[in-house]
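Project channel, design review

CF: Before we commit to the Novacetimonas hansenii constructs, I'd like one complete example in the thread so the newer folks can see what an input/output pair looks like. Taking DUF1285 domain-containing protein.
RD: sounds good, go ahead.
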Amino acid sequence: MGPGGPSCGALPFLIRRDGTWLYRGSPITRKPMVCLFASTLRRDLTGAFRLQTPVESGTIEVEDAPFVAVSLEWCGCGRNQVLSFRTNVDQVVCAGPDHPIRVDWDRPCDEDGAGAVPYVQVRPGDGPLPIEARVSRAVYYELAALAVPGHCHGAPCLGVWSGGVFFPLGRLPCCREGDMGDDDDGDGCAQ
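CF: and here is what came back for DUF1285 domain-containing protein:
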C-alpha cells in the first residue's frame, strides 16, 4: 500500500516541458481536469512524481518541472519587493523564503539551447526535492528587467529581491570595484 491507498504502479500520464499534460499520448485539453490532476500531484522521497488520491496512487513521467510560471506581477522595490508568479494551473506563488527561485546553471534553455533555467518552488515534496514551476521565457525576461546587481557566495551576479530574499539569476563575468550594489548582509542570496 502506498500513501493514500494501493499503488497502481506507473500511470499513463506525461507532463511535457511546456506544461502540457498527456494521457495515453493525447493532450488533456480541459483545464479544469488538468487542475484537478495537478492538485493530487506529489513528489516522493526518491524524487519521483505521483498522482495520489485517498483511494490509489501511481507514478507519472515528468519531462522537467510539472508546472510552468506563465505570468508575473510585482509590487514594491528593493528588499521590500514581492514577486507573484501564476502557474499554468492558476496557482499563485509569491517568491520568498518558503517559495525560493532557483536557477539551474547547467541545464540549457529549450528555445536556444543556452542559458540558465529558472524555477520557482510551488510546494514542498515528501522528501528533499520540491515541486517546482519552470519559469517561462517571457516571465524570465520580466525578471531580468527587474534584476539588480548583488553578490552570491562572494561572486558578482544579477538577481531579484522578493520577500526579503535575494535570488541570483545570472553571474556577472567581471566587474570593476565599486560597480556592484551592496546587499548589506554580505551574502543575501538564497542559493
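RD: helpful, thanks. DSSP finds two helices and 15 strands in the chain.
CF: Residues 176-186 have pLDDT under 50 and may be disordered.
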